[in-house]
Amino acid sequence: MPPGVAFASGHFTAENIITKTTRSGDLVGVFHDEAAWRALPAGTTIYQVEMLPSPDGEGELFVGTTHLNPGRVGDEFYMTRGHFHQRREQGEVYFGLRGSGLLLLQSEQGEARFEQVSQGSVHIIPGNTAHRLINTGSEVLSALAVWPTIAGHDYASLAQGFALRVFLWEGEIQARGVQYG
Ligand code: M6P
Ligand code: ZN
Predict the structure, then answer these.
(1) Residues sharing a CB contact under 8 Å with residue 181, sequence separation 6 or more, in sequence order
(2) Ligand 1 pocket test: which of 5, 31, 80 has the largest number of ligand atoms within 8 Å of its C-beta?
(3) Considering only Cβ atoms within 10 Å of each terminal Cβ, which end of the chain, N or C, has fewer?
(4) Measured from the CB, is residue 88 less than 6 Å from ligand 1?
(5) Residue-wise pLDDT tens digits, 121-147
(6) Which positions fall inside the Glucose-6-phosphate isomerase prokaryote domain (predicted)?
(7) How far is the CA of 159 from the centre of ligand 1 (A)?
């Protein structure tokens, strides 16, 4: 049997699945409201990534699913750390499996935009584009991703954060630009 993915839960049906958990305490400096972030138990799971085993090397692909919990740090929705690829020219595909949220995309020049993620949505992330998932719904947001094994992750270039943040403000989902300086 080849590996599969259960549409309802987004979980892989395969042997040798590799799982990585990202907890609140891992996301230092990621959320806007530092006091609210400190108030969360450091062991609170924000997201988990399941991956199928892949060979490494030019031309090979990773397949993984991110399961991003619903919740907020202060008024800001839970989100992944987000990254550029170390090999900047390498792209990626995201595919919405369950839940609802946003895919935040940002160019090297700092221009940011969103795509709506929902069950069945397909997102082609071009090269040279940072990407982050944001769960604006009340269920787990699961999205399958396919990316080249050679792509690598560059988190350091986003140490200042993305140019847009997403909050629940007076009962509405609101994106706000961020001023750095
Ligand atoms: C997706 C892919 C992975 C990534 C993961 C979590 O599954 O894009 O490469 O690691 O999401 O995102 P991040 O690394 O930004 O925490
Ligand atoms: Zn990526």
Answers:
(1) none
(2) 80
(3) C
(4) no
(5) 999 999 999 999 999 999 999 999 999
(6) 23-169
(7) 16
The answer to pTM > 0.90 is: yes
% the chain with pLDDT above 70: 98
Ligand nearest to the CA of 88: 2
Q: Which residues pair with 65 in a beta bridge?
A: 50, 144
Of 83, 105, 106, 124, the residue with max ligand 1 atoms within 8 A of its CB, to mutate for a pocket test, comes to: 83
pLDDT, one tens digit per residue, over 60-83 is 999 999 999 999 999 999 999 999
CB of 148 closer than 6 angstroms to any ligand 1 atom: no
* CATH class, range 4-177: mainly beta
Helix ranges, the chain (H): 34-39
Question: Which pLDDT score, from 0 to 100, does residue 178 have?
Answer: 81
Question: What does the block give as tokens for 25?
Answer: 């305490």
